[in-house]
Design brief:
By secondary structure, the protein is an alpha/beta fold. It has two domains: 222 residues, P-loop containing nucleotide triphosphate hydrolases (Rossmann fold, 3-Layer(aba) Sandwich), CATH 3.40.50; 67 residues, Alpha-Beta Plaits (2-Layer Sandwich). Helices cover 35% and strands 28% of the residues. It is built from twelve helices and 13 strands. The strands form three sheets. It has a six-stranded mixed beta sheet with strand order 5-6-7-3-8-9, with helices on both faces. A four-stranded antiparallel beta sheet has the order 11-12-10-13. It has a three-stranded antiparallel beta sheet with strand order 2-1-4, covered by helices on one side. Strand 11 and strand 12 form a beta hairpin. Helix 3 packs parallel to helix 5, helix 5 packs parallel to helix 6 and helix 8 crosses helix 11. The longest helix has 16 residues. The chain is elongated, with a radius of gyration of 22 Å. The two termini are 28 Å apart.
Length: 328
C-alpha cells in the first residue's frame, strides 16, 4: 500500500528548505546543488544508492554538518543563528545509534528526556514504539529491531515537529522492518513531518508522500511515487531473456514499447497496452530467429524510474560505493 499524497498539503507551510546546497570533502563532492522543499505533515524520502549523498544531506538538515555553500532553513530558522531553537523542535535518529547496554528502556528514555524542556510522558512514547513489555529490560538484551524502535523513541521523546530518520530499517528482517513502518506511520498520523533516507524501494513507496531520487549528489527526479512512475512513460515492464539475444533496435521498434534497455542480464522493456504489445514483442523475437527462455511482466516501479533517469540500475549504482565501503 502506497502513501497517499493529499492535494491540500501543496498549500501547507514549508518546514524545510534547501537551496543550491553543496558539500565537499576535499576533492569529493558529496552534495552537488540540491534544491528541495518539504511541507508540514508530509513524509519526504531521500531515495538512492549508498554513496549518493543522502546521509550528508540529512546531516546538514540536522545541523550535524555544515554546507560548503547554499542555504538551509529548518522551521523557518537557520543553524548559524538559531541552533538551540531548532534542536528543541526536531527529533533525530542517526544511521548508527549506540545506546548504553546496561540501562533499561525506560532509563534510556529518561536520560534523553533530561535534555529537553518539553517532553512527552515516557509511557506514551514507549507505547508508541510497542516496547511496553520491554520497559524494564536492559538495552543489551533487545533484538536489533527493538533497539531501532528504541532509537526512534529517543528521537520522539521531545514531541518533535520534524523527525529525521537516516536509514531506519537497514539490516532488519522483514518483520522488524514492517514494525518500524507502523511506528513511523503513527507519528505521521499525528500531523507531524518525517524526512527519511532509504535505499529500499518498497519502503519509499509505502511510507513517503513525496520522494527525491538522489544520485551522485544531485536530485535526479522528485515527486509522488505515482508521479515518478508515470515519468517512465508506460504502465508495465517486460523482462525478457532470449536465446540468442535479440538486438535492442529490434525490440525498441515494436509498437507499444516506450523504452528498451538490453544488457548481459537480458532485455527490460517499458510498454503501454501490454495486452497488444506483448504478442508483438514475441513476434519480433521469432522473426529475429530467437526464442524466449524467460519472460516476466510486472508493474513499473521506482527502480524503473531510477534506471530511466540515471541510465543505471540500482544495483549498478550501488556497486562502486560497496567496493569503496561508502556508507553515505
Amino acid at each position: 500500500m502506497r502513501a497517499l499524497w493529499h492535494p491540500s498539503r501543496v498549500h501547507a507551510p514549508v518546514v524545510l528548505a534547501l537551496r543550491s546546497l553543496v558539500k565537499r570533502f576535499d576533492d569529493v563532492v558529496a552534495v552537488n546543488g540540491i534544491d528541495l522543499e518539504v511541507r508540514a505533515g508530509e513524509c519526504f524520502g531521500l531515495l538512492g544508492p549508498n554513496g549518493a549523498g543522502k546521509t550528508t544531506t540529512i546531516e546538514i538538515l540536522e545541523g550535524l554538518a555544515t554546507p560548503t555553500s547554499g542555504e538551509v532553513e529548518v522551521l523557518g530558522l537557520r543553524w548559524d543563528r538559531d541552533a538551540a531553537r531548532i534542536r528543541a523542535r526536531i527529533g533525530v535518529q542517526l544511521q548508527e545509534t549506540v545506546l548504553q547496554a546496561l540501562l533499561t528502556v525506560r532509563e534510556t528514555l529518561a536520560l534523553f528526556a533530561s535534555f529537553y524542556e518539553r517532553v512527552r510522558p515516557l509511557e506514551d512514547v514507549i507505547a508508541d514504539v510497542d516496547l511496553g513489555d520491554k520497559a524494564k529490560a536492559r538495552v543489551g538484551t533487545l533484538s536489533g529491531g527493538q533497539k531501532q524502535r528504541l532509537a526512534i523513541a529517543c528521537a520522539l521523546v521531545s514531541d518533535p515537529e520534524v523527525l529525521f530518520l537516516d536509514e531506519p530499517t537497514t539490516g532488519l528482517d522483514p518483520g522488524a522492518r514492517r514494525s518500524l513502518w507502523d511506528v513511523i506511520s503513527r507519528y505521521k498520523a499525528r500531523g507531524r513531518t518525517v524526512v527519511l533516507t532509504t535505499h529500499y524501494m518498497e519502503e519509499a513507496e509505502r511510507l513517503c508522500d513525496r520522494i527525491a531520487i538522489v544520485d551522485r549528489g544531485r536530485v535526479a527526479a522528485a515527486g509522488t511515487p505515482a508521479e515518478l512512475v508515470a515519468q517512465v512513460g508506460g504502465e508495465e515492464v517486460v523482462e525478457l531473456v532470449a536465446e540468442p539475444p535479440v538486438p535492442e533496435p529490434v525490440l525498441a521498434g515494436v509498437v507499444g514499447v516506450v523504452s528498451c534497455r538490453c544488457d548481459e542480464a537480458g532485455a527490460r522493456l517499458v510498454v503501454s497496452g501490454i495486452a497488444r504489445t506483448l504478442p508483438a514483442i514475441l513476434e519480433a523475437v521469432a522473426r529475429a530467429g530467437s526464442r524466449p527462455v524467460r519472460l516476466a511482466t510486472r508493474h513499473a516501479t521506482l527502480e524503473d524510474v531510477f534506471l530511466s533517469v540515471t541510465g543505471r540500475t540500482f544495483e549498478q549504482a550501488e556497486a562502486p560505493a560497496k567496493a569503496a565501503g561508502a556508507p553515505r
